[in-house]
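Why do we bother with holo predictions? Because pocket geometry can differ from the apo form. Keep that in mind while you read this record for zinc ion.
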Amino acid sequence: MSKQHTLLMPLDMHLHLRDGVMLETVAPLTSYTFSGALIMPNLVPPVTSKDAVIAYKERVMAAVGVEAADPELDLVNSDYFEPYMTLFYQNYDKEFLEDVADEITSLKLYPAGITTNSEGGVSSFDLDTMRPTLQAMSDLEIPLCVHGETDGFVMDREAEFMSIYELLASNFPDLKIIMEHITTKVAVDMLDEYPNLYATITLHHLLITLDDVAGGMLKPHLFCKPIAKRPEDREALLKVALDGHPKVMFGSDSAPHPQHKKESCGCAAGVFTAPIALQSLCELFDSHGKLDNLQSFVSDNAQRIYGICPEFKEIVLSDEPFTVPEKYGNVVPMYAGETIGWSIESVE
Ligand code: DOR
Ligand code: ZN
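The structure, written out:
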């Protein structure tokens, strides 16, 4: 008999949906199984105004009602999906933030040029320049999500960023700061140092190390920022995720790029995991005997940390095999063509 596992109101607290045709292709893949997701603002141009937030949310909602690229998937049009919107961090004044606060769930800070469409990000972490914005966010209780990498040596970028997290966390003790897509043991250890620091962890960083990306033939579909790290880093991430650590949330960082931008000279960073996220998480947690902690990781912790109450949604998964499609539209998912151990049984 197959084993089943039920998840309630899954949340993906770090998701790239893009825009246009790509948005229409990928949004239904998340809205099918998740109650909501934190939508990243690194569009071209980035989402930096209230009008842009509202307009993008409308486009996301419209895309959720659009049929998926692969009709065989038989995706339902879900009424039960909340796009939690983010604003691209720049130095904003308090009046602006007060005005936009009801439309957003957080601000997302990118160091300038560190990853896809981040050129308009922060070029210097000068506290005097940033203080009015960060203090206003703290006063208004708007969390700060951070892509924490310096422009140093690629394997050291996240570790080098820890001093900036310390600076931010100690100067703004009431500001909730989320270390996005952490990939290192030092970042895991930092969680316990400051009460106002939290983290998201991706699926792919729980599954792979740099060896999987570049240890043999180069795997462009596993290339992302931050780059996957060492086995001991992955072990540290696994431990807190599998334990359902209360400050750690699932954020897929599912980041679709067209196939020709990945399989090319100058491969774009991003792993597309949206269509396999819950199935693979079940397989992973089950293989460690930790299925009971998955609910905390994929929903309860995020609800508590962000103070959000998603619409009811119940996903039943089972340990029946699922062969991952080669492509969704022109995007190649992680594990394309391979069979994973768990599948979606029903969504209500
Ligand atoms: O791999 C990544 N892809 N990392 C990021 O930080 C951005 C993302 C994207 O937008 O493609
Ligand atoms: Zn991202």
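The domain at 4-347 is CATH 3.20.20.140 (TIM Barrel).
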